[in-house]
Amino acid sequence: MNQPIDLLLEPVEAFLHYLRVERRLSPVTITNYRRHLAVLAEMSLEIGVCEWQALDPAKVKMFASRSRRAGLQSASLALRLSSLRSFLDWMMTQGKLDANPAKSVSAPRKKRHLPKNMDVDEVNQLLNINLNDPLSVRDRTMLEVMYGAGLRLSELVGLDCRHLDLEGGEVWVHGKGSKERKVPFGHMAQEWLQRWLEMRELFEPEDNALFISTKSGKRISARNVQKRFEQWGIRQGVNSHINPHKLRHSFATHILESSGDLRAVQELLGHANLSTTQIYTHLDFQHLTKVYDVAHPRAKRGKS
């Protein structure tokens, strides 16, 4: 005989199967959905709800209140409620719900932190690595490609040699949700990729991975990339703490400052929604206000 918790979790597993097979979401995303929905199933039993059909907006608000009291931060609470809304939307498509009681319950507004970026001088200082040993060449190439193409860390690590068009100066990138996009990477990245590809064969790579560990010949790990970037930041005397995310943000900010073309930046970054890219307009506005304050004769306020 099914336990009450089983009656709640069985449709959750069917939903997760749909996300994995039909939506092709990443394992990390599916794990997050499973964790939040399992907690909500437990909360449902605690308030006497043994089936999802018995939920109403008041009970969903109760979930939010209990989650806050349990110490859940705003971003995590928003994700929990989003997981519930998506799951209940799916239940409606299956004919198991007539309405989604979580639709009317909003999460607290998340604080939007502007991404930190480096200025062009800092980037040039970081990338001024002229050593010719294989490890340095590999690392500079990774830095040049990360900044030159604005890649995510997972995208950089996932690159294969076959994804490169060296002559055309482009790379095929596999982004979030298994979406592909073609991105240009510039002549400096092109030059260093050529140097690294010549050295790469010395390490008898096990597969087609572009960036490999010089010790094992296997695809380099994300953690190793983070560690190497941080070390080069210190070694090159850059004030900013260097990480892959910061290089991606710097790429986006510098492109936007020069072109003003938000749609192009969206395509280059692989953002599904323009709203995700629009955070860079705030950065660009900060840049413009600084220029205005320095350059405009009416900008400087005298002492009253």
Q: What would the principal axes of the Cα set say about the shape? A: elongated
| Tally of separate helices | 13
Q: What is the helical fraction, as a range of percent?
A: 55-70%
- Uncertain segments of ≥5 residues (pLDDT<50)? none
Could you give the count of β-strands? Answer: 3
Beta-strand percentage range: under 5%
Helix/strand/pairing class, anyone? mainly alpha
Largest sheet: 3 strands, antiparallel
What does this 3D model show about the protein?
- By secondary structure, this protein is mainly alpha-helical.
- The chain is built from 13 helices and three strands.
- The protein has helices spanning 4-21, 27-46, 57-69, 74-93, 120-127, 134-149, 153-157, 186-200, 222-235, 244-259, 262-269, 274-277, 279-295, and strands spanning 164-165, 170-174, 180-184.
- The protein has a three-stranded antiparallel sheet with strand order 1-2-3, with no helix packed on it.
- A hairpin with a 5-residue loop joins strand 2 and strand 3 (180-184).
- Helix 10 packs across helix 13.
- The N and C termini lie far apart (81 Å).
